[in-house]
Amino acid sequence: MKPHKVDQGKTEDGYVSFDSDSDEENGNRRSERKLKGKGEGKARDEGHSWYHYRRWRFCKVLLMDRCFDWKIVKIGNLEFLQVRNLHNQVTFTPSNFGSALDWAGAVNAAQLTNEAMDYTVSNDHGSFAPMRTDSQILVGIDGAAYMAAVADAMEAARYEILIADWFLSPEIYLKRPYINDYWRLDKLLKRKAVIRHPSHFRDRTFNWSHHEKLVVVDQSVVFMGGIDLCFGRWDRPDHP
């Protein structure tokens, strides 16, 4: 499936791409040619929906929420699959024009699973997710222990790291005392992949603030609360 041209720019057969700068797209295609044939078995084992000759770059995620819905729309003599949620609406062009109904059936089947219905039905207190039980929770108070735990989790990340802060200082040392730059935040992230949102120059977004403090590693370890990864937040119980 490919997003229809009313929603996005150029795409290649067989893989989904959304609005992005042409230079970035060209760079991705060059990277894909270099990586072609590498990691085929790994991609198969990971169970994702990308082709095993491609190194996938997530461009846009359309989550199933309480307003998630889909329908078949007809433009001229062609049929397209239109999917929407609370935040977005995307019209997909099937690579095989006769397969729109097949894709609609697959989306409908996914929507009816227990995992999806946790988010597509109304939950208590207007929450986007149901109440969970038996969660493993550790309460952190001081920035020193918090940042050290974040550093260890980031270092162990295998797939993805999500950081949302009100104020982030790339030069901060997450572990102290330090003898080199190994545990400096920007050096740690350089060992991983970084996508910044918003892209201030591309999106022309200059007045931007995100109050929530959040770090999610591999969608399994979450740090949340009131501590930014920035100067002035690292502290110990003895407050040196």
TrEMBL record:
UniProt keyword annotation of Hydrolase present: yes
One GO MF term: phospholipase D activity
Transmembrane parts of this sequence: none
Record-annotated PLD phosphodiesterase domain positions: 206-233
GO biological process: phospholipid catabolic process
Keywords: Hydrolase, Lipid degradation, Lipid metabolism, Repeat
Catalytic activity, as annotated: a 1,2-diacyl-sn-glycero-3-phosphocholine + H2O = a 1,2-diacyl-sn-glycero-3-phosphate + choline + H(+)
Domain of life the protein comes from: Eukaryota
Biased composition (Basic and acidic residues): 1-13
EC number of this enzyme: 3.1.4.4
Gene3D superfamilies tied to this protein: Endonuclease Chain A
Region Disordered, annotated ranges: 1-45
Protein name according to UniProt: phospholipase D
